[in-house]
């Protein structure tokens, strides 16, 4: 890794101009300045891409692309990585923001240990105006190299950064996913090396009515995509049964894994691990 590696901020964009300037300001003001912004527009319908081009016209670090047709978030995020030039990458949604030291603290982890393939931090839930509400409590340090780690308790989340070269050792993001894309990325990279937890809130997650995770009409599709990610992960890892139950598309695998990972014994084991690996 070079002394000051290029960091690629990846943005899968679609109709989010209302919040874009706040996102852009949070990246522009980073303490670590060797970065690029790779924005791929998935054929926005609100004419916001023209406004973004105007705002960023004098910033040579911003590279803007547009899909030929609306493809969905899986395709768009995959394209972001393929177009990036940085050694280290990290997705930031255009309606969210990051702390001023988010890039710097993440980069430092990769420079300290070559076996680290990804980092993640605590995340702050915010209201529609990006006013902090609470720190997400589930994010925590995880044990590396566990065959049965599925991030079922959301231990790994934003701000997530990764080595681009390691990503290309995976099969890549499933471009057909319309949700759970980040989880798909996490689990594939987890299989390739160590994750490093940064116990500080670096990512500000905006909760608003337009957000995909807040749209109740899409809950079933969200569940289907999550199930697909889990089944694919089992297939990659050669897991055919869990606790004597055969893995198939007919079972609620998320429920099975949640029950497996949240027994009293498992919870105690995780507490002991975190106690001795703080």
From TrEMBL:
InterPro entries: Glyco_trans_2-like, Nucleotide-diphossugar_trans. Residues 8-165 form the Glycosyltransferase 2-like domain. Gene3D superfamilies: Spore Coat Polysaccharide Biosynthesis Protein SpsA, Chain A. It comes from the Bacteria. It holds the Pfam family Glycos_transf_2. This is Glycosyltransferase 2-like domain-containing protein. It comes from Kaistella solincola.
